[in-house]
Specification:
Elements (H helix, E strand, L loop, with lengths): L20 H32 L13 E4 L9 H18 L2 E3 L17 H11 L5 E5 L3 E3 L6 H6 L1 H7 L26 E6 L2 E10 L2 H10 L2 H5 L6 H11 L1 H4 L2 E3 L7 E2 L1 H4 L13 E3 L12 H24 L1
Parallel strand pairs: 1-2, 1-3, 5-7, 8-9
Antiparallel strand pairs: 3-6, 4-9, 5-6
Length: 322
Amino acid sequence: MHFALPPRKSSHPPPYAARSSRSTVLRRTRLQFVAIFACCIIVLIIVFTRLYSTPSATVPLGTPEVVIVTTLDENGYSQEYIEQIKANRQDYAARHGYACFLPKASTYDLKGSPITWARIPAVRHALTLYPHSSYFFFLDQQGLITNPSLSISDHIVSRSRLESLMLKDVPVVPPDSVIKTFSHLKGDQVDLILTQDKEGLAQGSFIIRQGDWAQFFLDSWFDPLYRSYNFQRAEGHALEHVVQWHPTILSKLVLVPQRTMNSYDSESAGGDENRLYKAGDFVVRLSGCDAPDAKRSCDGEMAPHFKEWQTRYKRTSQATEA
């Protein structure tokens, strides 16, 4: 018997059936969704990386770590005195690679408030001019840097040094304020460094760290409402009010011993050895020397300190040149 052979396979198989247009559209939609989702993830990664990256990674080369701020008011002071103060700040900044910001107090519109309020917008201005600098040291024109060998970094703001200086659990406003400084604050959590004198918080010399908190604090301190109160000690009493009644501000503040950065001359110290300037101290201040009823002369009291500083500066310059 003969059986029929199976049909021979063709060397040209028929093409596959074309996919339906519905499945093609669905596949394309899925691919588009995946692409959009991936782009969103990439954007979020970039944003969070920039938000939480360390500031040091984006600080331009040559940025000064510290900016020295002093507001200058020529009323009641000789031109020689003002020039000496400028030279003092510029010399100190040059030694340590810092920057100086020395605006005239009259630059700022205080709406009739005492001229001493100008320190607040001046520091706020400096924060804007030097956005990458870490610390801003305000020293009023009644103060002189008498030991230029001490850097802000090593002498005060380094974590270990600051933690060794902190006055913990002490009344913010002496002698018996119920509001006290925090006892658990760490050096790297501090944004404002102040000292006290016998009258309260001393705002003629302070250090503030760059950041959103600093801007918030300065804006709060400079609030028009406080300026309208006509406090006896103007911005000094306003500062004490803000610090004592705003926990957000108190939580970032530390007090350090007065002679760390705010030693007083004999006329200002009132016989208190813990406040009295001694040779080798970082700063001397003639607190209140310009008060109308003080019968004191800022020029006369500062003269021997200027002379001491100039002698030290000349010796250092000669040693460097040699």
